[in-house]
């Protein structure tokens, strides 16, 4: 019966147990409010009902003779009335010790058994000389003192103005109960003035502990708000943990795919290239095409492994992959990278698109330009607040009018689309000066472009420094 008393007590001050995965916050608020008050309200209702029954029976019994059924039931009701009041006081003081609840129940049960024995033998009229009656007095006095001492001890340990008020009410009830038991021979239980006044004290305890009609009600609401905030934080942490697990699963799958591509398709391409005859023009052309496929595959694997690489790291990977092919074709590559803090603002998606554009540009240099040199430049332009990516070769060149037509060449169109997808502008032109060759210039804004004078208008792009002469 009292096994659940560890979660009982002054309903307004006890934590609420709830299933966080099955209720929404609004429903939880109503449920928590009911749980906080239902047990405490039930204890008050039980105590007041027991007092009402006892007072009603005392008026009904009136001047009934001792040993009659009326006085027997009056004494029984008084015994359980005391137990109900003690239960309410234990709840009010937020006492969680089970032995006190069991002591309260034992007092009611043993007292009822003794009263039943007295009634069975018709000994009520011989109260002063009957050992059973004396045992009943001693039993109740002992129980009353133990219960009162237990309540006072735990209240003194925890302190708090509300609990001190409960202790005062307990001591008042102890005095009334001791007076009733010790003078039971001459005083009919439940008829003193204190019996009519004591329910008002219990009601006052209930009002104080629940905060109804007092300023502490706002404190209860604040506590409920704290519970909701804690629940929200817990759900946010769970969502963050779930996102982390999802990202780890995706990263693991990406690495598995990259490993399969490298070990499976990559190995097959290497074996095919090794079987081709380098002296056969047709097989040599096929070998070059397969090498380009292998290069594309390696760059793809690098982009999967280096998902969070910076733009400088990504271009360095690209250089590492294409350098052997450039050396085999006799193309000298000049590399000019300026690693500044502003380039860290480039997002992973932008890095990936810039890598694809650079890969396509270098692929065109190797396959179509007939160039002997190529220069790759990546730096930050402070005035225009843009990233500059420039690739220039000394090959056959490209007609500017043809390059400006969006339908010209699948490779050029793809580079334009990639640039537009990240908010960059790209231009295809002939190299400056008397040099032949193709120049690809890409500008990517990496921060908010505002007027340095504070007008808020977009700033114009700064001039692009000409590339140095190439061999």
Order of helices and strands: HHHHHHHHHEHEEHHEE
Fraction of residues in helix: 55-70%
Structural domain count: 2
Shape: rod-shaped
- Helix segment count? 12
* Structural class by SSE content: alpha+beta
Average pLDDT value?
72
Strand tally is 5
Query: Beta-strand level of the residues, as a percent range?
Result: 5-15%
As laid out across the biggest beta sheet, the strand order is: 1-2-3-5-4
Report Rg: 45 Å
Distance between termini? Answer: 96 Å
Biggest pleated-sheet summary: 5 strands, mixed
| Low-pLDDT residue intervals, each spanning 5 or more residues | 1-30, 403-408, 448-471
Describe it for me?
By secondary structure, this protein is of the alpha+beta class. It folds into two domains: 3-214, no CATH class; 310-471, 2-Layer Sandwich (Heat Shock Protein 90), CATH 3.30.565. α1 (25-61) packs antiparallel against α6 (193-210) and α4 runs antiparallel to α5 (161-182). The protein starts with 24 loop residues before the first helix and ends in a 26-residue tail after the last strand. It has a five-stranded mixed sheet. The chain has helices at residues 25-61, 69-92, 98-120, 131-158, 161-182, 193-210, 216-275, 281-305, 311-329, 348-369, 400-404, 410-421, and strands spanning 332-337, 373-381, 386-393, 425-430, 438-445. The chain is 63% helix and 8% strand. It is rod-shaped. This is histidine kinase. Residues 450-471 are annotated as: Disordered. It catalyses: ATP + protein L-histidine = ADP + protein N-phospho-L-histidine. Keywords: Kinase, Membrane, Transferase, Transmembrane, Transmembrane helix, Two-component regulatory system.
